[in-house]
Fold this sequence. Notes:
The protein is about 35% helix and about 25% strand. The protein has six helices and ten strands, in the order E-E-E-H-E-H-H-E-H-E-E-H-E-E-E-H. A hairpin with a 2-residue loop joins strand 9 and strand 10 (about 200).
Amino acid sequence: MSQKITVHVSDSIGSVSCLIDEPENPLGILILAHGAGAPMDHSFLQTLAEKLIENNIVVFRFNFPYMEKKSKRPDVAAVAEKTVAVMLEKAHDLFPTLPLFVSGKSFGGRMSSQRLSKDCPDFVKGIIFYGFPLHPSGKPSTDRADHLHALKIPMLFLQGTKDTLATLDLINEVTNKLPTSNLITYEGADHSFKKGKKLFMDELVRDTIEWIVEIKSI
Protein backbone atom coordinates (compact mmCIF):
# COMPACT_ATOMS: atom_id res chain seq x y z
CA MET A 1 0.00 0.00 0.00
CA SER A 2 1.37 3.42 -0.98
CA GLN A 3 0.13 6.80 0.15
CA LYS A 4 1.21 10.42 -0.15
CA ILE A 5 0.73 12.78 2.78
CA THR A 6 1.71 16.32 3.70
CA VAL A 7 3.48 17.00 7.00
CA HIS A 8 3.82 20.42 8.63
CA VAL A 9 7.40 21.07 9.74
CA SER A 10 6.99 24.52 11.35
CA ASP A 11 5.31 27.84 10.70
CA SER A 12 8.53 29.33 9.37
CA ILE A 13 9.55 26.33 7.28
CA GLY A 14 6.14 25.22 6.04
CA SER A 15 5.03 21.74 4.98
CA VAL A 16 6.57 18.99 2.87
CA SER A 17 5.31 15.99 0.93
CA CYS A 18 5.92 12.43 2.11
CA LEU A 19 5.56 9.01 0.50
CA ILE A 20 4.75 6.00 2.66
CA ASP A 21 4.98 2.50 1.21
CA GLU A 22 3.70 -0.24 3.49
CA PRO A 23 3.87 -4.02 2.96
CA GLU A 24 1.25 -6.35 4.41
CA ASN A 25 3.49 -7.84 7.11
CA PRO A 26 6.11 -5.22 8.00
CA LEU A 27 9.24 -6.11 9.94
CA GLY A 28 10.27 -2.51 10.55
CA ILE A 29 10.20 1.00 9.14
CA LEU A 30 12.99 2.82 7.31
CA ILE A 31 12.97 6.58 6.92
CA LEU A 32 14.74 7.32 3.62
CA ALA A 33 15.99 10.88 3.03
CA HIS A 34 16.93 11.99 -0.47
CA GLY A 35 20.24 13.38 -1.71
CA ALA A 36 21.05 17.00 -2.49
CA GLY A 37 20.23 16.91 -6.19
CA ALA A 38 17.12 14.75 -6.49
CA PRO A 39 13.71 14.49 -4.78
CA MET A 40 12.16 11.65 -2.82
CA ASP A 41 10.71 10.03 -5.96
CA HIS A 42 14.01 9.90 -7.86
CA SER A 43 14.42 6.61 -9.74
CA PHE A 44 17.20 5.38 -7.42
CA LEU A 45 15.12 5.92 -4.29
CA GLN A 46 11.96 4.62 -5.97
CA THR A 47 13.66 1.37 -6.96
CA LEU A 48 15.29 1.03 -3.55
CA ALA A 49 11.94 1.58 -1.84
CA GLU A 50 10.16 -0.97 -4.03
CA LYS A 51 12.74 -3.64 -3.31
CA LEU A 52 12.73 -2.94 0.41
CA ILE A 53 8.94 -3.21 0.47
CA GLU A 54 9.26 -6.63 -1.18
CA ASN A 55 11.33 -7.55 1.88
CA ASN A 56 8.61 -6.36 4.31
CA ILE A 57 10.07 -3.00 5.23
CA VAL A 58 7.87 0.10 5.49
CA VAL A 59 9.63 2.92 3.61
CA PHE A 60 8.93 6.52 4.65
CA ARG A 61 10.27 9.12 2.20
CA PHE A 62 10.00 12.90 2.32
CA ASN A 63 11.16 16.01 0.50
CA PHE A 64 13.37 18.51 2.25
CA PRO A 65 11.78 22.01 2.13
CA TYR A 66 14.04 23.33 -0.65
CA MET A 67 13.14 20.38 -2.85
CA GLU A 68 9.46 20.87 -2.10
CA LYS A 69 9.86 24.45 -3.38
CA LYS A 70 11.82 23.18 -6.42
CA SER A 71 14.90 25.16 -5.39
CA LYS A 72 18.35 23.94 -6.37
CA ARG A 73 19.99 25.29 -3.23
CA PRO A 74 19.86 22.80 -0.34
CA ASP A 75 18.45 23.93 2.98
CA VAL A 76 20.80 25.17 5.67
CA ALA A 77 21.58 22.53 8.28
CA ALA A 78 19.16 23.92 10.87
CA VAL A 79 16.20 23.64 8.49
CA ALA A 80 17.18 20.21 7.20
CA GLU A 81 17.75 18.85 10.70
CA LYS A 82 14.43 20.24 11.95
CA THR A 83 12.71 18.50 9.05
CA VAL A 84 14.38 15.21 9.93
CA ALA A 85 13.26 15.56 13.55
CA VAL A 86 9.64 16.11 12.55
CA MET A 87 9.73 13.14 10.16
CA LEU A 88 11.08 10.89 12.91
CA GLU A 89 8.19 11.76 15.18
CA LYS A 90 5.62 11.45 12.40
CA ALA A 91 6.87 8.02 11.33
CA HIS A 92 6.92 6.81 14.93
CA ASP A 93 3.40 8.13 15.51
CA LEU A 94 2.15 6.25 12.45
CA PHE A 95 3.96 2.99 13.25
CA PRO A 96 4.60 3.05 17.02
CA THR A 97 5.13 -0.69 17.39
CA LEU A 98 7.66 -1.15 14.57
CA PRO A 99 11.43 -0.87 15.04
CA LEU A 100 12.44 2.36 13.32
CA PHE A 101 15.61 2.92 11.33
CA VAL A 102 16.85 6.12 9.69
CA SER A 103 18.67 6.31 6.37
CA GLY A 104 19.62 8.70 3.63
CA LYS A 105 21.32 9.05 0.29
CA SER A 106 24.38 11.30 0.62
CA PHE A 107 23.11 14.70 1.87
CA GLY A 108 20.03 13.10 3.40
CA GLY A 109 22.11 10.71 5.45
CA ARG A 110 24.43 13.43 6.69
CA MET A 111 21.60 15.76 7.71
CA SER A 112 19.91 12.87 9.50
CA SER A 113 23.03 11.91 11.43
CA GLN A 114 23.70 15.53 12.37
CA ARG A 115 20.23 15.73 13.87
CA LEU A 116 20.59 12.43 15.70
CA SER A 117 23.98 13.46 17.08
CA LYS A 118 22.19 16.27 18.94
CA ASP A 119 18.98 14.47 19.88
CA CYS A 120 18.41 10.78 19.21
CA PRO A 121 15.00 9.48 20.30
CA ASP A 122 14.99 6.14 22.08
CA PHE A 123 12.87 4.57 19.35
CA VAL A 124 15.58 5.01 16.67
CA LYS A 125 17.37 1.67 16.32
CA GLY A 126 20.08 2.62 13.84
CA ILE A 127 21.07 4.63 10.78
CA ILE A 128 22.11 3.61 7.27
CA PHE A 129 24.22 5.78 4.97
CA TYR A 130 23.81 5.19 1.25
CA GLY A 131 27.05 6.92 0.36
CA PHE A 132 28.16 9.17 3.21
CA PRO A 133 29.43 12.45 1.64
CA LEU A 134 32.61 12.67 3.69
CA HIS A 135 34.13 15.56 1.72
CA PRO A 136 33.71 17.56 -1.50
CA SER A 137 35.08 15.88 -4.61
CA GLY A 138 38.83 16.45 -4.87
CA LYS A 139 39.08 17.89 -1.35
CA PRO A 140 39.68 14.91 0.96
CA SER A 141 39.05 15.53 4.67
CA THR A 142 37.14 13.99 7.57
CA ASP A 143 35.63 17.08 9.20
CA ARG A 144 32.08 16.15 8.14
CA ALA A 145 32.33 12.99 10.22
CA ASP A 146 33.22 14.67 13.51
CA HIS A 147 29.61 14.65 14.75
CA LEU A 148 29.33 10.89 14.26
CA HIS A 149 31.30 10.26 17.46
CA ALA A 150 28.28 11.51 19.43
CA LEU A 151 26.07 8.76 17.99
CA LYS A 152 25.68 5.64 20.11
CA ILE A 153 23.26 3.79 17.84
CA PRO A 154 24.38 1.21 15.24
CA MET A 155 25.56 2.74 11.95
CA LEU A 156 25.82 1.06 8.55
CA PHE A 157 27.97 2.70 5.89
CA LEU A 158 27.37 1.47 2.32
CA GLN A 159 30.08 2.94 0.12
CA GLY A 160 31.43 2.57 -3.40
CA THR A 161 35.21 2.16 -3.61
CA LYS A 162 35.32 4.80 -6.37
CA ASP A 163 33.15 7.33 -4.54
CA THR A 164 34.85 10.70 -5.05
CA LEU A 165 32.94 12.15 -2.07
CA ALA A 166 34.47 9.61 0.32
CA THR A 167 37.87 8.25 -0.58
CA LEU A 168 38.26 4.65 0.57
CA ASP A 169 41.19 5.27 2.91
CA LEU A 170 39.37 8.09 4.71
CA ILE A 171 36.01 6.34 5.09
CA ASN A 172 37.91 3.37 6.49
CA GLU A 173 39.72 5.68 8.90
CA VAL A 174 36.42 7.20 10.05
CA THR A 175 34.51 3.95 10.54
CA ASN A 176 37.42 2.26 12.32
CA LYS A 177 37.08 4.90 15.04
CA LEU A 178 33.32 4.42 15.45
CA PRO A 179 32.65 1.41 17.69
CA THR A 180 29.00 1.00 16.61
CA SER A 181 29.67 1.26 12.86
CA ASN A 182 29.87 -1.29 10.07
CA LEU A 183 31.31 -0.52 6.62
CA ILE A 184 30.39 -2.43 3.47
CA THR A 185 32.04 -1.46 0.19
CA TYR A 186 31.17 -2.15 -3.43
CA GLU A 187 34.16 -2.63 -5.69
CA GLY A 188 34.32 -0.06 -8.49
CA ALA A 189 31.06 1.68 -7.56
CA ASP A 190 30.87 5.49 -7.66
CA HIS A 191 28.77 7.83 -5.48
CA SER A 192 25.65 6.72 -7.39
CA PHE A 193 26.52 3.06 -6.77
CA LYS A 194 27.22 2.55 -10.44
CA LYS A 195 30.12 0.83 -12.16
CA GLY A 196 29.71 1.48 -15.84
CA LYS A 197 26.20 0.22 -16.63
CA LYS A 198 25.97 -1.86 -13.47
CA LEU A 199 23.90 -0.54 -10.58
CA PHE A 200 24.58 -2.20 -7.22
CA MET A 201 20.91 -2.10 -6.22
CA ASP A 202 20.45 -5.78 -5.38
CA GLU A 203 23.58 -5.70 -3.22
CA LEU A 204 22.39 -2.58 -1.39
CA VAL A 205 19.01 -4.13 -0.66
CA ARG A 206 20.55 -7.41 0.48
CA ASP A 207 22.97 -5.70 2.87
CA THR A 208 20.28 -3.34 4.15
CA ILE A 209 17.87 -6.15 4.98
CA GLU A 210 20.51 -8.37 6.57
CA TRP A 211 21.68 -5.52 8.80
CA ILE A 212 18.15 -4.49 9.82
CA VAL A 213 17.25 -8.06 10.73
CA GLU A 214 20.44 -8.38 12.77
CA ILE A 215 20.03 -5.07 14.63
CA LYS A 216 16.31 -5.45 15.38
CA SER A 217 17.01 -8.77 17.06
CA ILE A 218 19.53 -7.29 19.50
